[in-house]
């Protein structure tokens, strides 16, 4: 009998949303898409990279703020629907997950960009050092 009840509960939970934590299927977060865009941004010292990076980060921040308002029930989604109270907790959990992933991607991109800039600066310094030594050797 206990096995029957366990099987019944497992089957029921697989097909139904017992606790009301079902995700809002109509709401699509823009944060994962913008995070992927940031990951795919080609790294370079070109000023266009920095502009693209900063614009994407601003878009991410704006999307996160909009989703905070949506999850709290203060603002509707793009279709004008307000999130039901019983789905707020799940919405905030998903937002937190997306936010943490975006922060990691931003950090890694900034770190790689700074390493690239630093490497180029070191190369320029080495070249200046080499030319200076050559000039000194030539003059003396």
Structural topology:
Layout: H1 2-15, H2 31-40, H3 47-72, H4 88-139
List keywords for this structure.
140 residues; rod-shaped; mainly alpha; 4 helices
Q: Output the radius of gyration.
A: 26 Å
Which spans of ≥5 residues are poorly predicted at pLDDT below 50? 8-24
Number of helices: 4
Q: What is the terminal separation in angstroms?
A: 100 Å
Strand content: under 5%
The percentage helix is over 70%
Q: Please tally the β strands and state the result.
A: 0
- What order do the helices and strands follow? HHHH
Please describe the biggest sheet, giving its number of strands, its sense, and whether it closes into a barrel. Answer: none
Count of individual domains? 1
Large-scale geometry: rod-shaped
**Average of pLDDT:** 85
Structural class: mainly alpha
Molecular structure report:
The chain has one domain (28-139). Helix 2 packs antiparallel against helix 3. The chain is an all-alpha fold and 140 residues long. It has four helices and no strands.
Q: Nutshell version of this structure?
A:
With 140 residues, this protein is mainly α.
